[in-house]
Each structure stands twice: as structure tokens, then as C-alpha cells.
Design brief:
A hairpin with a 4-residue loop joins strand 19 (about 205-210) and strand 20. The protein is built from 36 helices and 63 strands. Helices cover about 25% and strands about 25% of the residues. The protein is of the alpha+beta class. Helix 13 (about 850-865) packs antiparallel against helix 14 (about 875-885). Among the domains are: about 415-430 and about 475-625, Methylamine Dehydrogenase, Chain H (7 Propeller), CATH 2.130.10.10; about 1110-1175 and about 1190-1325 and about 1390-1395, no CATH class.
């Protein structure tokens, strides 16, 4: 409703002696002038600009006679002020303007500016008037005056001797006798025949206020009792007065009345405010609600505030300000929603956490339209003695001006657009429009004014980013030209699309387009100054509809202006009205108007195009008199036409009737009254008649729908899918939260039960103050005050007492809240599960729907599981059953459990089902991330064996699906269970862990020299551990000796099993990915599996599968090579041999220039040195360690590993070589695949799996690779079986190429000579140990075929596990020596992979 803005301003008072310090402030009825009292002076201030106009000083002699000034009261026409003094005198001052045409302050314009034109009323609007004060009359009442109240043409004065005086403004006592309070009868209600009197002598009125709409006085007596005194007839005498009082208030301190809502707010000594209303039938006082701080929100201060000192309602009666004796203030909406309180947060504490003294408020008064609050501040007891230091200026009493921004709903509740939040400040508007404002520079749309003290430093930009976050308002500065003569802004409205705004000031109106960013004002100022908008305004399509008073014609009118034409009465459509319009609202093509004679009038509005001008035509449709039901027209807060009725549209006889204006909603002083159309009569409608001529149905008598209503929202849109939400009526009820009047629909259009109600009122609480409802999106929008402390910037002691230090800077934040879970829960409580299901299904597409289900489950669980008493009818089983209707069930339950403490889990799973079953459901539904969350719950609720069993299941599934992140988490999880870490559950398994180098982690973390003899290799080279940010991989801890051996064995067995499966299914791409992602020691495992799983069983199938996996095209034969394939081949071989001595280096190039030439010439059979260096990052082009790595669409690493020939530029290529290269380029696969293949080739080569190397050599079609392998075979003792396998495999490939794939023939022809050599070698080589891996060491070898599985994998970067029963261990040194000898073909250089 109301929100604080910025810092308060301090007004410059003339500083004098303590006797001249201000003690009381009172604004005049128009709120343009303020009377400020000091002990012996009366000052008149002007409100805009806030300047002092005139001061009257009392002479010392008469001052001692009268005593200090106490209170002031204005005459309704602002021509007189009555001031009461301590010694029982009333002083009457006349205010007269002087000097004829002279003004105290005038605006000065440059010559020729448009403002200089003579406009009526121009001077008086613009200038601060020069006034004189003159004491005309002194009245001695001979008793201290406790209260002073202006009542119509009289002044009502209460004195400490228990008398009530009625005094005429001219200073006469009207000749009437003063009334003694003790003679007024008091009772509990007005129906009892006679009341009891206040039965003791010294009773008097301590505070009172007149309520015009109740026609009586709310009073507080000196003994703390409160009451309401009303004249029984029009005569004001003791016999004609009667009082009512509530029995339970005995500590009243002050009172304020709200005329619009007929409320009396009594401040109490306990610090709370009790708000009473009068029962219409009995006249008794009923407690409406209380305003009190809760221990939950303000634990340290809620009961230490002291008594309530002042209560003040805002000018529009929508909020109330409360202050306490102990200091501080709070702001509440009419029915008790707390908006601001300065006893907590940044108001009460400094940025270093120390407590501040609260602001003491001695007096306060609201300014025009509630944009300002004038406060006389006094800081505790310090205002008596003045210190000499300059810093004490703040400690003196002074006048502070608090600035407010308020919602447009407070003054224009019938704003036609109900989905935008529109706030109005005194010179600017705040909108929450989405799209139009997103293009704004956020700097220009800041919610706060630039603090001048910070402008020089760098604080401003920092302030903006921290204050606003992403929730920018769209701020529109109201046109200065319009504001100058029409301040303050009274109404504002925004159109349906949120693209145009209109504002109304003192006279006329102006409108603004958010698209063109331009204001449109009246061209003729006389027309503007001639109209006063009375009943608010609304948008209808492109038209502005408003009700106004025409000053020159003295006529009430209804006008419609077109937005696109010039703002001029010539383009307006004017309809005369009988009485003053108080409220106006638009519904579809109808305008509903509420008038001062308590009648409601319906108009139809339609667009008319007459020649060039487009106008709107308005016709009266229907008039309804409400004077029987409405005691006072001012009590009507809002009037709306809606399509909502007690019938929900199904039972209506005609479908289109459901969309008509079915009923009128009237908010009468907080009571929501509905009048529906009377459909009981015959429903005859002529087909041929004009729809506008048709007779509208009469309205039924009104029905009260709800109490304590502040705002009402409905929509006229229709949506078949979301009928529940769109046909509902939303109410905001202050402290009681919100209510929704929801329609209930039968399922599948069945006939509804006659005994079932068709609508239901559901209450629910939300944490924000609602300002708009998004119907389809199930969201409530609001705004909230946020504060920022700047006191850390003012470190100098002199600045310690500045306002910027004492008060935080206030900004307004946009907020929103979901309400769907409240409604679903309320429906389930009332056994309306079917309706809840229909509603939930209609909203299941909302992005936050999973959150809604989770919130509902969580709230019910917390309430029921922590309840002290047993719950007779628990709701949790119902909610659980309800959530199972949705596919998100498993996710919702586990997320809720993870956010709830462990103690409540048993209660939750008793209702939703066993977590083991839910885990299995997740696995069946392939929802592995959710299954992982269930695993953590199982780990806490079950024995370790059960969670290990489920973890194994999940681990295998995750391996199968290639979810590497999850796999890494599962490895860690399984280890944690094994090593007894299971007391602390691991962190959430769905979190992504960044792995920094994708496919090549393996390479980067090894430093091996293969050609040195293993004896002189330092041990540190092999115990090098992975240092990457992958705690879940086989990090050092996993392989270290002291970690749990059996657990690691268990994990290794699963990893080996998976690797074996991948190899058997020829899924090399997946294997590389698996090894790289999980840090699997591929080389050492391949060494052991060389003769078993790592054998190639069928070369042809393997070749085909690799082509498919790596998207590698099968080779084709180019035309030129058909004539002489062997010639090409021969040249190629020569080229290969001639480049034998060339050095090759693996460089980390990501430049595009190398991509075209990276493998134009393949490395020869003999390599010197290859350096691997990690790639530089290519930004964030692809996530490296994510589970999607190495699918066809994503790259193995950020960059690429490129083979570049250093001497390439010096070569001269022959024609045929070029031809061959171009052929090769044409039939090559993607660059990424090539990198991956070379990586795999390197690994297989190192592991000695030569048959796989041959297959990869074939697919890459590089004879040098084949040559290299053959050289190794000839120079090293190689397993005979492998040789045989390679030979038969190559023969099979040859046969297949001849039959199915001739593109391979040229390449096979090239390598034919080597193959012949190979077959010769095979026949010569017959080893006795042909079927055992070659080892140099003499350790005993296993005879079982799967022997190596029982040994820890012993590769680079690993330390083998200890001995396992029944199996010997080959020492690391021996095995590495063996491998070094196996590959000793790299005679000259060392093959060294070093981490850069």
C-alpha cells in the first residue's frame, strides 16, 4: 500500500532556545498549510515547497499567563487556528493574506517561456502565499485542556475537570451549558434502555476524535477506558448523548478514527492498537482486529515498546501510522497487514551490529495525498539541555519529512487493469511492466534519487547494483509542466497492455505512452483548469474514461477522450450526469459509475468513427438505487462489475450469459457486497432487437460475501483450460491474508449435485502485501520496502549524527508469491480432492509447478510431524496420494525429504512409501539423478549393505548410460560406505563437477619415459597422482595403501567388467570416454587383457563399427587411381620412407590454419619425440566434464590435439602425391574423430594391443602406422596367438574389401609387402609360452584365464594393491620393464609424455 522512499528530509527550523523547539504539528484540512507549535510561538509552514511563511511569537508576560502552547486545530475553511495552552486558555488566530498581489515565494521563469502566459489560478498554485497571523480572541476555560476537536462549524473542547464544551469559531460558547461527562449514560450497546453512568467524580476525556460517518466521538478516558459517544438526536445536550463501551479495554492511551471504513483505533498502554467498529444492528462496539508486533518477528522488542503514543490514519484512509513512547513507528494497512516497522532491521541496528536509539516522535501529521509525513522528532530526554557541539543539532527536536510512495489502488481501486503493479509518488510513477521496461537502461530506472553525498565517490553504481538486483521498476517522471500547476497527483491508471498511463492532479489530467516516451497535456490550459476529476479514471481500449466536474458550467460530466488525438475537449465525448461521481470502473464494454446519491449507473460504451474523427459513444443502460443499503456514500471503497456469480456458468440456460456482466461487487467499508442479476423471471429475448436496446435484467438484493476486505481482483478474460483461476474472485483482507472465492466444477460435464455449493471461499496467508493478481500464472505480485545502510561511509565523528547515518536508505522492491499450494491444500482439507486435481492439472504446465507440489508436501509434513498433540485426521496421506497423480511424484518426495530434517523422514515415508521401492521406480523410469537422491536417504535409513546394493545397481546403470558425473559421485559414495564414512551423507549427487580437460585428463597426468630401462626410473614418476578437481575419480586416496582395499577392489571389478563389455561390443568411442571421464587406468588394464578381452575377434565387424561410431566415411576409389592403383600406392610408400627421419611433434594448436593440413602427411615408422601440452581454454564453448561429452554433437575437449609436420613447408609435392592427399582429405572423417582415434591408437600401442592398432591404422589408412606395428612385431617377442589373429584378421578384411568395399583395396595393396613379411615371421616364430603375457620378471603367473582381475590395476600413476589370496603379484618395476622392452622399437628418441 504505502512504502517509504529514500531518506527523510530535515526542514531548517530557526534554531533558538529550547523554548522555541517545535512540539506539535497539525495540517489544515486541505493539507497545504501546516501549523507548528513551540512553547511560545506559532509558525505556519507551506507544504510545497516546504518553507516557513509566518511565525507569531508570544510576549513573555502573556506567555507566563497562558502557559506553553499545547495543541492546535484548524477551522474547516483554513481561515482560523485555535491553540490550546497549558493553563486552560484557547487562543483564536486569524490567518489573512496580505499585500494583495504579492507572494512570499514566486517561481522565476526565463523570458518567453510558455509558463508566462496568463493562466487562471496560476499564481496561487505556484507560489507560497504571504500570510499574516493575528490573535483575535482569548477564551479562558479555567481547567487544563486535554483535547481539542473541530466538528463541522464548532469546536469541541474536553477539559480536565470532566466537562465537554461546544465553542463557536468566533470564540463564543454558543450559550450552551458545558456537558459533564459523568452525566452521560454508558452501556454495552444502544439497545439497552438505560446505561450506567461513569460512577466516579474525577473522570475526564484524555483524547477524542470525531467520526463523521458514524456521527459520534471515539473517546479515551483518563482511567484507560475507551468508548464511543453519539448524540441520540440532533440536539447536543447531556440528555441526548449516549455512550457505548467495550468491557475489555482498560489501558487506552489515544484514539484515531477512519471515516471511510468506520473504524476506531485505540492505542493501548501494552503497545498494541485495538481497532473497533460499530455493529450496525445493536450499536455495540465490536473488535475488528489488533495491530501488534509479534514475538516471532521482533523477538527482542515486541513487548518493550512502551505505550502507544500516537495513531494517525492517512488522508485516503488506507493505512495507519502508530508510534510508541519508547520511540519508533510502524505502518499498517486498514485491516492490519504490517507494511513497515522501524524497530527492527537496518532501522534499529548499525552496520556493525550495534543498536541505535529509536526515533522519538512527539507529534506527526500527514501531508497532501499521503506523500509526506511531517514529524516533530525529539531524541529522548536530550531535548532539554542543549550541548554546545555542532553535532548535537540532530539531537534537538526538529521537523522531519518522511516521503512515501503508494499503490494506485488506494485512490483508484477500480483501475481497469488488475494485473499491473502501479505505484505513485508525488512526482513519479513506478510500473512493473515487463517488456517495455527491459529495454530501459537500468541506470535511468532506478528507484531512488541520487544521494548527493555519494555522487562524487564510486558508491552510486555499486548502490544501484546491490539495491535493485534484477527487479527493476520502470520509473516514469511525471511531466513538470503538468505538476507545476496541478500538484499533488490524485489518481493514476494504466491500460490493459501496460503501455499507457494517465494521471490526474488538482485540475485536468495528462497521459503518457511508454512506447513513444512522451507526455500529452491539454493544449488549452483553460480547459485543463476548468475540470476537476472526481471519481477516478480508467482506460477502455484506446480511450480514457473519467468523471469530472465542469467548473464553468457547474455540471457533473462523464467524459471519454481518445488517446491518439490531441488532448482537447473538441475531441471528447461528454455525457452529463445528475450527481457527483465518486467511483468509476470499466468492465468489457460497460462503464459502471457510483454516485454521491448512492445510485449505481451502468453505461454501454462503443467506438464510433464519424468522418475523420474517432470517438466513443456512451449510452445509459441501467440505474440501480442503493440508498437503502448504504448509510453514507463516502463509505463505498470500490465498485466493480464482474462475470462472477454464485452460479458458475454450467447451469445457466445460455452459454453467452456466463460471460456477461453478471453481478456488481461493492466494497462497503470493508464488507464485500454482491448484487447478482435476478434470473428468476421469464428469460425472453427478442432475436432481432439491437443488443444495446435489450432490457437488462434487474438485480437481486445484495448479499455479503466477506468482511475486512481491502482490495478485490477479478478478470473478464476467459480460458477453457484454467476456468478455476479465471472465474475466481480474489480478495485481500489485510492481516487475515487473502481469500479466493473459487468456482467448483463437476467432472466431465456431469450434472452437478443440487446439494453441493457451486463456489467456495478459501482463506490463505501470504508473506507479501498483494497489489496485483496474475490469474493464469497463479502468482500474486506485490512490493516491499527494503533498506540499505550507508553509515559505514560516514566514518568521521562529525558525520556520526547525520540523517543518512541514523536512517537507512529506503527503496521499494518488487516481489511475487505463489499461492497455488495454499488453495490445493485448502481443497484437500475440505475433501474436494477432485476439484484440487482439476485445478492442479490445469496449472501443471507452469514452470514452478514442481515447486508448488514440494511446498505443499513440505508445509503439511512440518506441521503434522512436529505437532505436540496427536492429529485426529492427518492430511499428509491425502497430500501424498494427491501428488502420486503427477509424474513429478518421485522427484517431489525426495526433494522435500532432502530439505527436511532427518527426524521427520520416518513420518514422511510412512505416508509416501518405502524409499527402496521409490528408488527402484526411479531406476525403472531411467531417472538416475532422482535415484541418486534416494540413495542418500537409504544410506541414512538402512544398513550399509542395503545402500551398497542399491548404489551398485545405480552405478552400473549410470555406467551403461554414460552419466559420468553421477558415476564419479557413485565411486566416492561406495568408498564412503566402505571406509565407514557413511555417517556423513555425501553432497548432492546431481551437482555438476567441473572436470578441466575432458578426454585427455589421462594424458596430462602422466610423465613416462618408455625407452629408458625401468631400473633408473625414479619411483615418483609412477606414483604421480591426479591433481584435477575430480574428487570422485580414482584420486590418490583411492589408490593409496591405507584406503580400504576390499572396497576399491569392489569398485575396480565393476569398472573392469564395464570396460570388458565395451571392448567386446567394439564400443571404442565409449571406452575412451569412460576412461577419460572416470580416470580409468586403461593402459594397465589393456596390458592384462591383451590376450582376452582386448583381442579383436572379428576385424571386419570392428572396422565397420569404428566407421559408424566415429562418423568416418568408408573410402571410395577416385577415378584417376582406377587405372593404376599400385602406382599411387608405390609413390605413397616412397614418400613415407623418405620422411622417416623427420621429427614429429604433437602441438597444442587450436588455430584454424592447422586444421586443413594436420594430417596431410602421416608420421613415418620411426618417431623422435612427441610433446603433449595441455590446451588453452577456448572460452566456454562446451562444458568439458559434463555427461554429454563425446557424443556425436560435442567435442572431446575444448581445443584439439593436432599433429603438425615441422618440415612441411620445405617439401615439394609431386602431382600424384597431391592427388592422393586430395583423395584422403575427401574420405576423412571429422577432425574431432581423428583426434580421438589417434588418442586410442596411442593407448593401444602403449598397452601392446597390436591387433587394435592395426584396425585403427586401417581406418586411418596410414601405412606408416602399419609399418611401425610390423617393425615392433619383428623386433620384439610378440605373443604368437596375437600374430596369428592379426594375420587371419587382415585376410578377412581383404576378402571383405574385395566383396563389399573396393575403396580399401588401394590401401591394402600398399601394405601387401609388409603383410607378406609378417606371414613369414609368423611361421618362423613359435614360442613355447605363446599363450602367456610376456614378462621379464620371474614372478609366478596365474593360470586361471581371469587371473589379472584379482590384482590391483598397476599402470602409470598407480600403486598396486597388496596381495590377494591365491594370486602372486608382479612388481611394478618388472612390469614396467617388460613394457618398456616390448616397445623398444623407438630406438633413437624417447617417447615422452610430459605435463607442461
Amino acid at each position: 500500500m504505502y512504502f517509504l522512499s529514500g531518506w527523510p528530509k530535515r526542514l531548517l527550523c530557526p534554531v533558538g532556545s529550547p523554548a522555541e523547539a517545535p512540539v506539535h504539528v497539525q495540517s489544515d484540512p486541505q493539507r497545504t498549510l501546516l501549523a507548528v507549535l513551540a512553547a511560545a510561538r506559532l509558525s505556519i509552514w507551506f507544504s510545497r515547497p516546504s518553507v516557513l511563511i509566518v511565525t507569531y511569537k508570544e510576549l513573555a508576560k502573556s506567555s507566563s499567563q497562558f502557559g506553553p502552547y499545547k495543541q492546535a486545530e484548524w477551522r474547516p475553511d483554513s481561515t482560523m487556528i485555535a491553540v490550546s495552552t497549558a493553563n486552560g486558555y484557547i487562543l483564536f488566530f486569524h490567518i489573512t493574506s496580505t499585500r494583495g498581489d504579492k507572494y512570499l515565494y514566486e517561481p522565476v521563469y526565463p523570458k518567453g517561456s510558455p509558463q508566462m502566459k496568463g493562466t487562471p489560478h496560476f499564481k496561487e498554485e505556484q507560489c507560497a502565499p504571504a500570510l499574516t497571523l493575528e490573535m483575535k480572541k482569548v477564551l479562558d476555560l479555567q481547567a487544563p485542556i486535554t483535547s481539542l476537536q473541530s466538528v463541522l462549524e464548532d469546536l469541541l473542547v474536553a477539559t480536565a475537570d470532566g466537562q465537554l464544551h461546544l465553542i463557536h469559531w468566533e470564540g463564543m460558547t454558543n450559550g450552551k451549558k458545558a456537558i459533564n461527562i459523568s452525566t452521560v449514560p454508558f452501556s454495552l450497546d444502544l439497545q439497552s434502555s438505560r446505561g450506567s453512568f461513569l460512577g466516579f467524580a474525577d473522570v475526564h476525556i484524555r483524547d477524542m476524535e470525531y467520526c463523521a460517518t458514524l456521527d459520534g466521538f471515539a473517546v479515551v478516558f483518563n482511567d484507560g477506558k475507551v468508548g464511543f459517544i453519539t448524540p441520540v438526536s440532533s440536539r447536543f445536550t447531556a440528555e441526548q448523548l449516549h455512550g457505548v463501551w467495550p468491557q475489555d479495554v482498560v489501558d487506552g492511551t489515544c484514539v484515531a478514527v477512519n471515516n471511510k471504513y468506520r473504524l476506531m483505533a485505540f492505542g493501548c498502554a501494552s503497545g498494541s492498537v485495538q481497532v473497533y467498529t460499530i455493529d450496525n444492528t445493536t450499536g455495540a462496539m465490536l473488535l475488528s482486529h489488533k495491530l501488534e508486533l509479534t514475538a516471532k518477528q521482533y523477538p527482542d522488542i515486541w513487548n518493550k515498546t512502551g505505550a502507544v503514543k500516537l495513531v494517525r490514519w492517512s488522508p485516503d484512509n488506507s493505512v495507519v501510522m502508530v508510534t510508541w513512547e519508547g520511540g519508533g513507528f510502524s505502518l499498517w494497512s486498514v485491516f492490519g497487514a504490517q507494511l513497515i516497522c522501524t524497530l527492527g532491521g537496518d532501522f534499529a541496528y548499525r552496520s556493525d551490529g550495534t543498536k541505535k536509539d529509536p526515533l522519538m516522535i512527539n507529534s506527526m501529521s500527514w501531508g497532501a495525498e499521503g506523500y509526506h509525513l511531517w514529524v516533530i522528532s525529539g531524541f529522548g530526554s536530550q531535548n532539554t539541555e542543549l550541548e554546545s557541539e555542532p553535532k548535537s543539532i540532530v539531537k534537538q527536536p526538529g521537523i522531519l519529512l518522511f516521503q512515501f510512495i503508494k499503490s494506485a489502488l488506494t485512490v483508484n481501486p477500480c483501475m481497469s487493469n488488475q494485473e499491473q503493479v502501479l505505484l505513485q509518488g508525488e512526482d513519479r510513477l513506478y510500473l512493473n511492466c515487463g517488456d517495455a521496461s527491459q529495454t530501459q537502461n537500468p541506470r535511468s530506472s532506478s528507484v531512488h534519487y541520487k544521494p548527493s553525498s555519494l555522487a562524487e565517490g564510486g558508491f552510486e553504481s555499486q548502490g544501484l547494483s546491490t539495491l535493485l538486483g534484477h527487479r527493476h521498476w520502470h520509473v516514469v517522471q511525471i511531466s513538470n509542466t503538468y505538476l507545476e500547476s496541478n500538484w499533488p497527483i490524485r489518481f493514476s491508471a494504466i491500460d490493459k497492455l501496460g503501455q499507457n498511463i494517465a494521471v490526474v492532479g488538482k485540475f485536468g489530467f495528462a497521459h503518457y505512452s511508454l512506447i513513444t516516451k512522451k507526455w500529452k497535456l491539454f493544449g488549452n490550459i483553460t480547459q485543463e483548469q476548468n475540470m476537476i476529476v472526481t471519481g477516478g479514471l480508467a482506460w477502455w481500449n484506446d480511450f480514457i474514461v473519467l468523471a469530472c466536474y465542469n467548473i464553468s458550467d457547474r455540471q457533473e460530466e462523464l467524459r471519454v477522450y481518445l488517446r491518439t488525438s490531441n488532448l482537447d475537449n473538441a475531441f471528447a465525448h461528454v455525457t452529463k450526469a445528475q450527481a457527483e461521481t465518486l467511483l468509476l470502473s470499466v468492465f468489457r464494454d460497460m462503464v459502471v459509475v457510483f454516485r454521491a446519491d448512492c445510485s449505481i449507473c451502468l453505461y454501454s460504451i462503443e467506438r464510433k468513427s464519424e468522418g475523420p474523427n474517432t470517438t466513443a459513444g456512451i449510452q445509459v443502460l441501467q440505474e440501480v438505487s442503493m440508498s437503502r443499503y448504504i448509510p453514507h456514500p463516502f463509505l463505498v471503497v470500490s465498485v466493480t462489475l464482474t462475470s462472477v456469480s454464485t452460479e458458475n456458468g454450467i447451469t445457466l440456460k445460455m452459454p453467452q450469459q456466463a460471460r456477461d456482466a453478471e453481478s456488481i461487487m461493492l466494497n462497503l467499508a470493508g464488507q464485500l457486497i454482491m448484487m447478482q442479476r435476478d434470473r428468476s423471471g421469464p428469460q425472453i429475448r427478442e432475436k432481432d432487437s439491437n443488443p444495446n436496446q435489450r432490457k437488462l435484467l434487474p438485480f437481486c438484493p445484495p448479499v455479503v460475501l466477506a468482511q475486512s476486505v481491502e482490495n478485490v481482483w477479478t478478470t473478464c478474460r476467459a480460458n477453457k483450460q484454467k476456468r478455476h483461476l479465471l472465474e475466481a474472485l480474489w480478495l485481500s483482507c489485510g492481516g487475515a491474508g487473502m481469500k479466493v472465492w473459487l468456482p467448483l466444477f463437476p467432472r466431465d460435464h456431469r450434472k452437478p449435485h443440487s446439494f453441493l455449493s457451486q463456489r467456495i471461499m478459501l482463506p490463505f496467508h501470504i508473506n507479501i502485501y498483494p497489489l496485483a493478481v496474475l490469474f493464469e500464472d497463479a502468482l500474486v505480485l506485490g512490493a516491499v520496502n527494503d533498506t540499505v545502510l550507508y553509515d559505514s561511509l560516514y566514518t568521521r565523528s562529525s558525520a556520526r549524527e547525520q540523517l543518512e547515518v541514523l536512517f537507512p536508505f529506503c527503496v521499494v522492491e518488487r516481489t511475487s508469491q505463489i499461492y497455488l499450494h495454499h488453495i490445493l491444500r485448502q481443497l484437500l482439507v475440505r475433501n474436494l480432492g477432485e476439484q484440487a486435481l482439476l485445478l492442479a492439472q490445469s496449472c501443471s504446465t507452469l514452470p514452478y509447478f514442481p515447486h508448488v507440489l514440494e511446498l505443499m508436501l513440505h508445509e503439511v509434513l512440518e506441521e503434522e510431524a512436529t505437532s505436540r498433540e496427536p492429529i485426529p485426521d492427518p492430511l499428509l496421506p491425502t497430500v501424498a496420494k494427491f501428488i502420486t497423480e503427477f509424474p513429478l511424484f518421485l522427484q517431489t518426495v525426495v526433494h522435500c525429504a532432502r530439505k527436511t530434517e532427518y527426524a521427520l523422514w520416518n513420518y514422511l515415508f510412512a505416508a509416501v512409501g518405502n524409499p527402496k521401492d521409490l528408488f527402484e521406480e526411479c531406476l525403472m523410469a531411467q531417472d538416475l539423478d532422482t535415484a541418486a537422491s534416494y540413495l542418500i536417504i537409504l544410506q541414512n535409513m538402512e544398513v550399509p549393505a542395503v545402500s551398497r546394493q542399491h548404489a551398485t545397481l545405480l552405478f552400473n546403470t549410470a555406467l551403461e548410460q554414460g552419466k559420468w558425473d553421477l558415476c564419479r559421485h557413485m565411486i566416492r559414495f561406495l568408498k564412503a560406505i566402505g571406509s565407514g564414512e557413511s555417517e556423513t551423507p555425501p553432497s548432492t549427487p546431481t551437482a555438476q563437477e567441473p572436470s578441466s580437460s575432458g578426454g585427455f585428463e589421462f594424458f596430462r597426468n602422466r610423465s613416462i619415459s618408455l625407452s629408458q630401462s625401468a631400473d633408473n626410473v625414479p619411483a615418483s614418476k609412477f606414483s604421480l597422482q591426479k591433481t584435477l578437481s575430480m574428487p570422485s575419480g580414482p584420486s590418490g586416496k583411492r589408490w593409496s595403501k591405507d584406503s580400504d582395499c576390499a572396497e576399491n577392489m569392489y569398485i575396480d571389478m565393476m569398472l573392469w567388467r564395464h570396460a570388458r563389455r565395451l571392448l567386446e561390443e567394439v564400443r571404442l568411442k565409449d571406452l575412451g570416454c569412460f576412461a577419460a571421464q572416470l580416470g580409468f587406468e586403461l593402459i594397465s588394464w589393456l596390458c592384462k587383457e591383451r590376450a582376452r578381452a582386448a583381442r579383436v575377434d572379428n576385424f571386419v565387424i570392428a572396422l565397420k563399427r569404428l566407421h559408424k561410431d566415429f562418423l568416418w566415411p568408408l573410402p571410395i576409389i577416385p577415378a584417376s587411381s582406377l587405372s593404376s592403383p599400385f602406382k599411387n600406392g608405390k609413390l605413397r610408400t616412397d614418400a613415407g620412407l623418405s620422411n622417416v627421419q623427420r621429427s614429429q611433434s604433437w602441438l597444442s594448436n587450436i588455430g584454424p590454419t592447422h586444421h586443413e593440413i594436420d594430417t596431410a602427411l602421416s608420421p613415418g615408422p620411426q618417431m623422435q619425440e612427441a610433446f603433449l601440452s595441455p590446451l588453452s581454454n577456448k572460452g566456454d564453448e562446451c562444458s568439458i566434464g559434463s555427461a554429454t561429452d563425446l557424443t556425436e554433437s560435442s567435442s572431446m575437449v575444448d581445443g584439439d590435439w593436432t599433429v603438425v609436420d615441422e618440415n612441411f613447408s620445405t617439401l615439394s609435392l609431386t602431382q600424384s602425391e597431391l592427388e592422393h592427399i586430395s583423395m584422403e582429405l575427401a574420405s576423412k572423417g571429422p577432425h574431432k574423430s581423428q583426434v580421438q582415434l589417434r588418442y586410442l591408437l596411442h593407448i593401444f600401442m602403449e598397452a601392446g594391443c597390436l591387433d587394435w592398432c592395426i584396425v585403427i591404422g586401417l581406418i586411418l589408412r596410414e601405412s606408416s602406422i602399419i609399418n611401425q606395428i610390423l617393425v615392433i612385431i619383428q623386433t620384439t617377442e610378440v605373443d604368437g596367438e596375437m600374430l596369428q589373429n592379426i594375420k587371419t584378421g587382415l585376410h578377412a578384411v581383404d576378402r571383405w574389401a574385395s566383396a563389399d568395399c573396393p575403396g580399401y583395396k588401394p590401401f591394402l595393396n600398399i601394405i601387401k609387402p609388409q603383410l607378406q613379411k609378417l606371414s613369414e615371421t609368423t611361421e618362423e616364430q613359435v614360442h613355447p609360452e605363446a599363450f602367456q603375457p610376456v614378462t621379464v620378471g620371474k614372478a609366478p603367473e596365474q593360470t586361471s584365464p581371469r587371473a589379472e582381475e584379482s590384482r590391483g590395476s598397476s599402470g602409470h600413476g598407480s600403486i598396486p594393491q597388496g596381495e590377494v589370496a591365491g594370486g602372486g603379484v608382479v612388481s611394478r618395476k618388472e612390469e614396467n620393464t617388460a613394457r618398456a622392452e616390448e616397445e623398444e622399437t623407438f630406438q633413437d628418441g624417447t617417447y615422452d609424455c610430459c605435463v607442461s
